[in-house]
Amino acid sequence: MLFIKTDSDSRLFEWRTIRQANYNTIQDVLEVFADIKVLPRYLDYYTPKSWPSPFEIVSEGYFCQSGITLVLLATLYHKGFIQYDTICMPVVSNNNTGKNGLVIKLDDDVFNFTAGRIDDWSYVKHNATIFQIHEVAIKDII
Fold first, then answer.
1. How far apart are CA 90 and CA 92, in angstroms?
2. What is the DSSP track for 29-70?
3. Is the pTM of this model over 0.90?
4. What are the pLDDT digits (tens) for 27-55?
5. Were both Cys, which of 33, 111, 129, 136 would link to 93 (CB 3.0–4.6 Å)?
6. Domain ranges within the chain, ordered by starting residue
7. What's domain 8-141's architecture?
8. Within a 10 A sphere around the Cβ of 135, how many other Cβ atoms?
9. What's the chain's Rg over C-alpha atoms?
10. What pLDDT is recorded for position 8?
11. How many Å apart are CA 77 and CA 23, to the nearest integer?
12. Which residues pair with 130 in a beta bridge?
């Protein structure tokens, strides 16, 4: 399981190893993130200006749905899979898992709605309550 260490340095080292690994597809990265245990909500997903940096999330262990999504986004961006200046980040309540938080929407693909899978936006709309949709500058997140 990923990020189960209790100390900050170990978690940061683990994330560094993930960022340095070679991945051929987004799916490969999603599978690495699929087994992170989702913790209770830490982040205010309604207020992007309050979101901690991905490094702070990993360091402090803020692995709620939104925290995992933000670290995943930073990893995908770092690996060159996302090359946009802004990104769409819906706030959803997943009717299948009961988890609330951020997901990544890239065109009609949604990342981190279902762990380890790319979901279609129509599937997400059918299986979630969508509270809000943020259009956020990547530079403000990473």
1. 6
2. HHHHHTTPPPPSP-S-TT-GGGPPPHHHHHHHT--SHHHHHH
3. yes
4. 999 999 999 999 999 899 999 999 999 99
5. 129
6. 8-141
7. Roll (3.10)
8. 10
9. 14
10. 93
11. 12
12. 92
